[in-house]
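Lecture 7, part B: from sequences to assemblies.

Below are the input chains for today's worked example.
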Amino acid sequence: MDTNGLFRKFVAFTASVHQVKHEFTKDIRLDEITPLQYSMLEYIAVSQPVTLSDISDCLFMSMPNTSRELKKLSDKRLCEKLAVAGDRRKHAIRLSPQGQAMMDGVFGQMEARFMARTQDATPELLAEIEHALDVLQASVFYTERPKMGKS
Amino acid sequence: MDTNGLFRKFVAFTASVHQVKHEFTKDIRLDEITPLQYSMLEYIAVSQPVTLSDISDCLFMSMPNTSRELKKLSDKRLCEKLAVAGDRRKHAIRLSPQGQAMMDGVFGQMEARFMARTQDATPELLAEIEHALDVLQASVFYTERPKMGKS
DNA sequence: TTATTTTGTTATCAAATGATAAGTAACGAG
DNA sequence: CTCGTTACTTATCATTTGATAACAAAATAA
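Predicted structure of the full complex, as structure tokens:
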């Protein structure tokens, strides 16, 4: 079968995803925040609570750099480190109310742009889009299980 | 309808795509090349021939920075600038044979990883994946038409 | 022809990011 | 308790990337 053609579609597709994601977010990044810091906030927003190691693993950043950038976010009052019961080395990282408000605003803008692209879609097409997202995430764009944590 | 749920899937999906793309490419980037330069090479490989402005527009880089980084790629003999008939300001940028060989190797590695994820898929699932890529690219992940060129 | 726009270049500077070494505190095994 | 491991921090340095100003050559318009 034409697996090579499928691979080419995969390449073109990932390029489009990168580009569209960038178009959706490029002009709504507040000052006070670098692109890397934004990606950390987005990750925290979706996966909170997280640990420093989670961020480091998922964003492919070294621990020292993760620590440094997170400190800047904490200094800006955009996220908080809470002690974790049971292991005092770890911190549960969450968005602060300000950080949550900021990310709510960002996601709101993104959602508006997303809906602008889907508003003319029929219910059938919407269902198809949702199904397509599910299929691809399950079969191709799944993320390797990171080495699991403990009990 | 649950457009909000769909948007959340969109957000999770784009995050997965970024991550998987990174996992596919992180350890096959040769020395001699920075991440930004790699993204330029990948874009050139897929869209060649391109102009400097094309790269600048599609990769959201300023012209001066695009020019600088492309010069480094040219110095490394990974791409070539050819004169364009009809407009001597423009250059048709292509991969050099060395650059093409390098990108062939990179895409080969990526394809192996892609196939590792799809080798157990039935022909029906493969068809479904292909259809899903088409649907999403047409309805959500299409890129805005940049201001068109000339005649 | 002259003026304006397009396409690209060069130079310079600041900021963001990556990499490494060294250190600390808490946990867990023996 | 001691030792090794985990989770994280601090400091430092080099590289990469982004931003801006100033320029030049070719095309296009007037």
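Note for the exam: Residues 45 and 100 of chain B are 7 Å apart (CA to CA). Keep this in mind when comparing with the next example.
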